[in-house]
Amino acid sequence: MNNKNYKWWHHATIYEIYPKSFSGSHNGAWGNLQGVIAKLPYLSHLGIDVLWLCPVFASPFKDSGYDVSDYKMINDDFGTIEDLEALIAKAHELKMKIILDMVINHTSDEHPWFVSACQSVDSPYRDYYIFRDQKEGQCPNNWVSSKTLSSVWTYNPLIGDYYLHIYTKHQPDLNWENQHLREEIYDMLRGWLNKGVDGFRLDVINKLAKKSGLPDYKGDDQHPYADSFFENNDKVHEYIREMHKKVFDDYPEALIMGQTGGITTQQAYEYVHPSRHELNLYLQFEHMDIDKGYEGRIQGWTISDLYNSVMKWQLLLAQGLWPTVFFGSHDSARMVARYGDVSKAYHSLSAKMLCVLQLCLAGTQIIYMGDELGLCNVEYEHIDDFTDIRSHDTYRSRRNKGESRASILKDLREVARDNARVQIPWSLAEDMIEDDVSIYNFYRKMIQFRKASTVLLTGQIIILNLDNTHLFAYKRKNGHVIITVIANMSSEEVTLTLDDYGVLVIDNYEESNDGLLKAYEVKVFRFEG
Ligand code: GLC
């Protein structure tokens, strides 16, 4: 890619905010938009270029705002449209952009369209959703979703039929085959772009089209979930291309970042290759699911599993597929708890090691709020401590199959989304800002380092196999300059004969020994040939 083909988002560091737990302007349990405004100087100081706000629209909040009841209104708990306008204006003053999380695969079951559609077959909104008659007293088909571990159908007693929802029953799927619905969505997206937002993160966008005819899924005990029938179907590309033409052609600077879980590398091309006029960035989760097994159970993983997964996607850069890099999100447990070590001795070191490992990779970077403070998982004891609906769905389903409370809770403590959704401890942030060697200041310096490095921003990625199962190592190369990153992802010391990698430019230990990587040590070298 030559310079003139880069857009503003290629080299951006995005910061994901889950607004409910970020910052409040008053002492309530909820964060809000004024609270985000108050923290703009903090984010600017950290070096953030773009804020991604998880959904802020009117919502009964059954799935944390991913159940929208009015796309044109802000959730009362977050503030008003004027607050969002003020946030956009203030962020722009500080040279930061704002992208909104748009959930257009489904709405809330309290959305007036759905309420009306349930009431009468003559409702003008009836065909905005996917209703089907029962089949021999049963659900219209046998699809079970891996997200809820239950049927995708719920009975609508007002008419005696069923509606489809691949997430919870509070999130009925929209029928993208309906052109009026599509036009309403496009209109709404244009409305937000006209207010000055800089783009969108499009929630589960690869699920808009369901398998034609909604046939039964022929799974087996190992593969009971029908997800493949409602993701990446051909028609989804038609819808996204139409959306691009009718909305984004008029806003060529807007970022369209699509959440596309479960895609293959070939499918990623289909979503983001510029010639296709679909999305700009894809979000894939292979490395994020590395520790998650069947039904949310913890599964073992190795550093080479993680390495191979990350590198598989990074290497596609050589073929023009720009990566999006993240290790934390509102949908996962805390990054340092998963890939690092939260013991007192190694917490800070491993958080810094992960920071380097992430920020030296190629692609658009996303930092999840609080990871710059090294936040860890929560220590919930009882299922009632968890608030996320997915934690409860998982718990209920596995209890129904006879699994013990203790065993389910053990997994939830490690994988639950609740882990990433607790309030940001701002007093910790204040302390860290003052502390030169804090995780926060390390992130800040790494973000600056990345911004100033053409190699990190534009260089190719090269695999570095050091034949040691504790190491995660790679190189970046641009012309004559090579940056080498060697991270020890374990608590064991690793001795190795280092090649002439050049000058040591970053180390998370204050004192570094040649030929030795201490526990969770990361070294970055720069070579100019
Ligand atoms: C996406 C969101 C997740 C939400 C789901 C349903 O995966 O990231 O938080 O539960 O979509 O909207």
The secondary-structure class comes to: alpha/beta
| Molecules bound to protein | alpha-D-glucopyranose
Low-confidence stretches: none
Placed side by side, the strands forming the largest sheet appear as 13-12-11-5-2-1-15-14
In helices, the fraction of residues equals 25-40%
Number of strands: 22
In angstroms, what separates the terminal alpha carbons? Answer: 23 Å
Number of helices: 15
Mean pLDDT: 96
Query: How does the overall form come out from the CA principal axes?
Result: globular
Characterization of the model:
There is one protein chain. The protein is α/β, with parallel strands linked by helices and 529 residues long. It contains 15 helices and 22 strands. It has an 8-stranded parallel beta sheet. The protein has a 5-stranded antiparallel beta sheet with strand order 16-17-18-22-20. The protein has a 3-stranded antiparallel beta sheet with strand order 6-10-9, with no helix packed on it. Helix 10 (347-359) runs parallel beside helix 14 and helix 11 (389-400) runs antiparallel to helix 12. The model has no long low-confidence stretch (mean pLDDT 96). Alpha-D-glucopyranose binds next to loops.
Tell me the layout of helices and strands.
Layout: E1 13-17, H1 33-38, H2 40-46, E2 50-53, E3 57-58, E4 70-74, H3 81-93, E5 97-102, H4 112-119, E6 131-132, E7 144-145, E8 150-151, E9 153-156, E10 161-164, H5 179-194, E11 199-202, H6 234-246, E12 255-259, H7 265-272, E13 281-283, H8 303-314, E14 324-325, H9 335-339, H10 347-359, E15 364-368, H11 389-400, H12 405-415, H13 426-434, H14 439-451, H15 454-458, E16 460-463, E17 471-478, E18 481-488, E19 494-495, E20 503-507, E21 516-517, E22 522-528
Parallel strand pairs: 1-2, 1-15, 2-5, 5-11, 11-12, 12-13, 14-15
Antiparallel strand pairs: 3-4, 6-10, 7-8, 9-10, 16-17, 17-18, 18-22, 19-21, 20-22
